[in-house]
Amino acid sequence: MFIYNVTVKVDWSIHDAWVNWMLNDHMPEMIKTGCFTNSKLLRLLEIDEKEGPTYAAQYFADSKSDYTRYIENFSTTVRQKYFDMWGDRFVAFRSLMQIVQ
Question: Which structural domains are found in the chain, ordered by start?
Answer without folding.
Answer: 2-61+86-98 (3.30.70)
